[in-house]
Structures are given as C-alpha cells and as structure tokens.
Design brief:
Elements (H helix, E strand, L loop, with lengths): L1 H44 E2 L4 E2 L16 H11 L30 E4 L11 E5 L2 E2 L8 E2 L10 E5 L4 E4 L1 H9 L7 E2 L2
Antiparallel strand pairs: 1-2, 3-4, 3-9, 4-7, 5-6, 7-8
Amino acid sequence: MKKACIVLIIVLIATSAVLFLRDHMKGAQISSVILNARNLYYTLTLDPPSNILTYELLPRSDGTKSYETSTDYFRTLIESGKVNSSFFAAPGIHSPGSDDPEAFQSTNNAWCIVEDLPTSGDVNSPAIFTRNIQIESLNQLARLTDNPPFGQRAGIIVTKGGVALSLDEETINQYFAGQKMTNRVLRP
C-alpha cells in the first residue's frame, strides 16, 4: 500500500511538473513571437536615419501597393531583400527554408496586415496581427480560431504606434470593437 501511495505521489508530481513546463514553454513562445512581431513592424515602418515611423511601405488599396493577401505583400518585401522569410514564421507555421520569394506561401505566413493604415490618427490602431485572429475587415467582430500560432489561447497584435500585445479572446473582441475603422485586412 505504501509503495502504491509513493508511486501515486511521484506520478502526481511528475504530471504537475510537465504541465508547468508546458505552460511555461507556451508563454516563452508567445514572448518570442511578440518580439518578432515588433521587429517585423519596425523593419516595415521605421526610417533609420530619423527614427520616425513612416507608413510608405505598408499596403494600400490602390496603385502599386495593392495586394490580394498578406503573403503577396510580404513576398515583395522578401524579393526586395528588406526582410527574410523567417520573419513570418511562428509556432506551427514554418519558414520555407529559403528566401526565394516563390517558396514563400500562405502556409509559411503567420501574419495579417491592415490595408490603408492612416498616416495620422490613433496610434493604438492594429497594424499587423497573427492569423489565428479571424477578421476580414476592422468593422467586424474578431475572434480567435483553433489555428496556429496560438489557437484560442492568444492573439498577437502590433499597433500602429509599434506596441506589441498578446490578447485573449475577450480582450481581442473589445480591442477590435473599439477601433471604429473599416479597413480591409490582408490575410495569408
């Protein structure tokens, strides 16, 4: 009986340790993706000589900066050498292993990007966010899906001002509902 109790206690401790480590690893993954998201956004918007955010490279609905998907948009940045394909990977979404723009497909892209981001206005507006946040236009209700990188656990958003956030489903709904914007979202 004593041996069974000891074995049961060891199993419970081991299970608790595994659960703790799993949750800790997911938190570390979220932190890593937040850092990558902010770096991606600054690569797209920060003018190095002046240290001022500029939105000239971001997608527009008309002219030469018009794209059907975020993958199409990001592919042109890979082609120009501005970024490499690893910027767009996240847990469950892998880099194609090559910086050949044609190798970069929607399955390699963790990010959505807002089209026609205004150059003035609210710095808390969303600029880029993870693909597990389901929304086609900023005037819709947002929700988390079961898809990578974090399923319904969290969505990562980088605001127009460059702040990167991890939000749960309830907070995401509140965040997007408060935007009062109608911009189209370019999805992978």
